[in-house]
Amino acid sequence: QVQLVESGGGLVQAGASLRLSCAESGRPFDDYAMGWFRRRPGKEREFVAAVSRTGVVKDYADDVKDRFIISRRNHERTLFLQMDSLKPEDTAVYYCAADQTPSPMLTRRTDALYDYWGQGTQVTVSS
């Protein structure tokens, strides 16, 4: 059984930075491509960023690609999301997710394809 635990959320002002972390336990971390998703108030869950099993391939949603950086440390079984220049519209619950794919270079944007999810961490950006 895989467990994912997010941390690092909080309340910040517009323009600030936060770094989210997601700690994995249960199986070899590099078995999984990883992703970050978010659910903004009143909206469906949406893709934010993804990274391949190797960490080489990364993908971002258009509205975060110049401000957020996804990374992973496989030996530490941890996924990160560095969020800079935060905007009020980034306010959401952020979730990390694991995709058990055999491909070492694959990333995916579809949440239904992910196998495991964390409980989420709240990020609130005030104007």
What level of helicity do the residues show? under 10%
Arithmetic mean pLDDT: 97
Structural class: mainly beta
Beta-strand proportion: over 45%
Head-to-tail CA distance between termini: 40 Å
Unreliable spans:
none
Report on the structure:
The chain is mostly beta strands and 127 residues long. 0% of the residues lie in helices and 49% in strands. The chain contains no helices and 11 strands. It has strands spanning 3-7, 10-13, 18-25, 33-39, 45-51, 58-60, 68-73, 78-83, 92-99, 116-117, 121-126. The strands form 2 sheets. Strands 2, 4, 5, 6, 9, 10 and 11 form a 7-stranded mixed beta sheet that branches. A hairpin with a 5-residue loop joins strand 4 (33-39) and strand 5 (45-51). The protein is globular and about 40 Å long. The mean pLDDT is 97.
